[in-house]
């Protein structure tokens, strides 16, 4: 992973193995602390949410994208710019619902789960649930309430990792001026 | 110094950061002997010159310091009332510094909230749909530039009217905020920013902008 060169500071490369190890240590420690998978999933989602509310500003400051006017634009920006910027992958967007308010992101490979195997006693653990929280938190800060969940996971034997995102509503309170 | 101040306003209109980057040029310090030929009067929390303009000391200037020690409100640094101190001939000769009073933090908070409300008026008055709020406010001594992010945070910069490059400075301040304030895990969102690194990097960015921008066309 490296910082975008356009920033004018030296680009910092970090070893992605260190990132995988760090995330793995985080999840295993949470498993020890909470002992049941549901709680760990919730904690990962909360942590992801806290990351997302901060990450969105970094994303907006560096990528200069304007406000998205519909969910399709949002999906494009998430898959082609955000995922590329932060994880170096470009998921594909598929399975649009007829109303245009739900879609799936298909990740061929997920950098968080390099080298990871889920043991049998953690079969309900959503290992990468942090990502769901990040997406939820980030979109909430730009006035979109969404529901994000994993529907397929390579760790559980599926062929791809699929994240389903559903638009719930636009958040109307505390709208920045000029956005009504 | 062409960039005067930076204000950061959160979503609710509260001031979360403020930096004054100018050296006030209107301070005058003079030595006086009894009796004082200026008429001083208390006003609000300060002692101001009511009459007797001379030598750069103007009506409306406040007493800023006596004998080098800063005055706080109507009392000197050691707690004595300023007017009493100056009416006692035994304290003369005395050196007093006059100048335009600086805004107190409460005043700045109020002005920032007021600006937050006014900002919205810009988009409400607009004949077009989807207009932004107030982006620039111009007076004869400064230009105020405002940038609102998609998340509702406003970055406000007050600069010399001829200073160029403020748009890119505002984007740079946004980057500095997203780095040194948001990536600091101990900083809570929407709270006052008290991060050393944010201060330092912001001052650096202001200096770079001042050097780079003074000769371009107005932004």
From TrEMBL, chain A:
It holds the Pfam family TRAPP. One of its GO terms (cellular component) is TRAPP complex. The keyword Aminoacyl-tRNA synthetase does not apply. It is found in: Endoplasmic reticulum; Golgi apparatus, cis-Golgi network. Its main location: endoplasmic reticulum. Keywords: Endoplasmic reticulum, ER-Golgi transport, Golgi apparatus, Lipoprotein, Palmitate, Transport. GO terms for biological process: Golgi vesicle transport. May play a role in vesicular transport from endoplasmic reticulum to Golgi. Belongs to the TRAPP small subunits family. BET3 subfamily. This is Trafficking protein particle complex subunit 3. It comes from Zapornia atra (Henderson crake). The gene is Trappc3.
UniProtKB/TrEMBL annotation, chain B:
It is found in: Endoplasmic reticulum; Golgi apparatus, cis-Golgi network; Golgi apparatus membrane; Postsynaptic cell membrane. It comes from the Eukaryota. Pfam families: Sybindin. The keyword Endoplasmic reticulum applies. GO terms for biological process: autophagy; dendrite development; endoplasmic reticulum to Golgi vesicle-mediated transport. Keywords: Cell membrane, Endoplasmic reticulum, ER-Golgi transport, Golgi apparatus, Membrane, Postsynaptic cell membrane, Synapse, Transport. Gene3D superfamilies: 3.30.450.70. One of its GO terms (cellular component) is postsynaptic density membrane. Core component of the TRAPP complexes which has a function of guanine nucleotide exchange factor activity for Rab1 GTPase. Plays a role in vesicular transport from endoplasmic reticulum to Golgi and autophagy. May play a role in dendrite postsynaptic membrane trafficking. PANTHER family: TRAFFICKING PROTEIN PARTICLE COMPLEX SUBUNIT, TRAFFICKING PROTEIN PARTICLE COMPLEX SUBUNIT 4. Belongs to the TRAPP small subunits family. TRAPPC4 subfamily. Part of the multisubunit transport protein particle (TRAPP) complex. Component of the multisubunit TRAPP (transport protein particle) complex, which includes at least TRAPPC2, TRAPPC2L, TRAPPC3, TRAPPC3L, TRAPPC4, TRAPPC5, TRAPPC8, TRAPPC9, TRAPPC10, TRAPPC11 and TRAPPC12. Interacts with SDC2. This is Trafficking protein particle complex subunit. The gene is TRAPPC4.
């Amino acid at each position: 992973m490296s910082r975008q060169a356009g920033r004018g500071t030296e680009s910092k490369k970090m070893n992605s193995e260190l990132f995988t190890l760090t995330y793995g240590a985080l999840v295993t420690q949470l498993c020890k602390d909470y002992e049941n998978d549901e709680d760990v999933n919730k904690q990962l989602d909360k942590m992801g949410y806290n990351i997302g509310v901060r990450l969105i500003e970094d994303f907006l400051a560096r990528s200069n994208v304007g406000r998205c006017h519909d969910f399709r634009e949002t999906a494009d920006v998430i898959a082609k710019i955000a995922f590329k910027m932060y994880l170096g992958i470009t998921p594909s967007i598929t399975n649009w619902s007829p109303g245009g308010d739900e879609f799936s992101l298909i990740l061929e490979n997920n950098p968080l789960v390099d080298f990871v195997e889920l043991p049998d006693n953690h079969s309900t653990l959503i290992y990468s649930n942090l990502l769901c929280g990040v997406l939820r938190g980030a979109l909430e800060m730009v006035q979109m309430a969404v529901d994000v969940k994993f529907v397929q996971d390579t760790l559980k034997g599926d062929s791809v990792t699929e994240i389903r995102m559903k638009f719930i509503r636009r958040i109307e309170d505390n709208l920045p001026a000029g956005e009504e | 110094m062409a960039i005067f101040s930076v204000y950061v306003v959160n979503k609710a209109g509260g001031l979360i950061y403020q930096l004054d980057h100018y050296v006030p040029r209107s301070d005058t310090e003079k030595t006086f002997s009894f009796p004082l030929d200026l008429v001083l009067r208390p006003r609000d929390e300060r002692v101001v010159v009511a009459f007797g303009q001379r030598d750069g000391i103007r009506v409306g200037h406040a007493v800023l310091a006596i004998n080098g020690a800063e005055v706080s409100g109507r009392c000197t640094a050691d707690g004595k009332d300023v007017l009493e101190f100056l009416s006692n001939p035994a304290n003369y000769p005395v050196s007093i510094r006059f100048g335009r009073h600086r805004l107190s933090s409460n005043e700045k908070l109020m002005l920032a909230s007021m600006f937050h409300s006014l900002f919205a008026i810009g988009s409400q008055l607009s004949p077009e749909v989807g207009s932004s709020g107030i982006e620039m406010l111009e007076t004869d001594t400064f230009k105020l530039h405002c940038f609102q992010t998609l998340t509702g945070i406003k970055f406000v910069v007050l600069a010399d009217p001829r200073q160029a490059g403020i748009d890119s400075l505002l984007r740079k301040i946004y980057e500095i905020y997203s780095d040194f304030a948001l990536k600091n895990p101990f900083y809570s969102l929407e709270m006052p920013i008290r991060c050393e690194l944010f201060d330092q990097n912001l001052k650096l960015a202001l200096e770079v902008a001042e050097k780079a921008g003074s000769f371009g066309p107005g932004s």
